[in-house]
Design brief:
Elements: E1 3-9, E2 26-27, E3 30-31, H1 32-41, E4 48-53, H2 58-67, E5 75-78, H3 83-93, E6 99-104, H4 112-125, E7 127-132, E8 138-143, E9 146-150, E10 157-165, H5 166-172, H6 184-190, E11 197-199, H7 210-223
Parallel strand pairs: 1-4, 1-6, 4-5, 7-11
Antiparallel strand pairs: 2-3, 6-10, 7-10, 8-9
Length: 227
């Protein structure tokens, strides 16, 4: 079976308070995005890697690859207006059948073991989405002056990769874009498919704020990846 990985890298540096997009910020001496691609490259299933990137960042990415001698094979595809459109562009590059994992470029700590398990679960069930239970108490905002407590045992924090049968995901992405399409699972669920959840990893954090880089650096050193 053929395996694919669509790495979505459309983020900016707004919440990082940085002029450099967060996927290009350095993590232990190498851009975050390179760590992410490397994780999929190390997977024993040998997925074909498709990087979806804002067209205005393609030349900059090429420069970074030269600077860091980054030669892992991957195809660069033009990003879209929203994440939905970026994933759709990545899917257009896939011509055959198989299983595809869609992953945030700024989740560089994903383990190869979890990537492999995601592919295998999706091959059996049609899809596989990662989720972890929240450890904090949670409340829902009703209005600016009122909130209500929710039972955290009824909630999951969703991660990527989100992995699907290629034909299933392509069919789901034929739907017109909606504002409530927050991830691939929401697109697939809207198309009438049941979502299969497996447990994610606490260390599979999303680099969003400056302190996330510091946390990710500690996790990488703990794993023995001190670049």
């Amino acid at each position: 079976m053929k395996h694919y990985a669509i790495i979505v890298a459309g983020g900016s540096g707004n919440r990082m308070k940085s002029t450099v997009a967060k996927q290009f910020l350095l993590l232990n001496g190498m851009p975050v995005l390179m760590h992410t691609i490397q994780a999929f490259y190390k997977c024993v299933l040998n997925p074909e890697i498709i990087l979806v990137l804002n067209i205005h960042q393609h030349s900059y990415w090429e420069e970074l690859c030269q600077t860091y001698n980054f030669n892992i094979p991957h195809q660069v595809v033009k990003g879209g207006e929203q994440r939905f459109h970026s994933v759709k562009n990545g899917l257009k590059y896939i011509k055959g059948k198989g299983v595809v994992a869609v992953h945030d470029a700024v989740r560089p700590l994903i383990s190869t073991d979890l990537i492999e398990r995601s592919y295998k679960q999706a091959a059996q069930e049609g899809n596989c989405v990662l989720g972890i239970s929240p450890t904090d108490s949670v409340r829902r905002i009703i209005n600016p002056h009122k909130t209500e407590a929710l039972n955290r045992n009824d909630l999951l924090l969703i991660q990527t990769p989100q992995t699907f049968d290629v034909d299933l995901l392509k069919k789901a992405y034929q739907k017109p874009y909606r504002n409530d399409f927050t991830d691939d699972a929401s697109v697939v669920e809207y198309s009438g498919f049941e979502i299969n959840i497996i447990e994610g990893e606490r260390e599979n954090i999303k680099i969003t704020f400056q302190e996330d880089l510091e946390i990710a650096s500690i996790f990488l050193k703990k794993k023995g990846f001190d670049y």
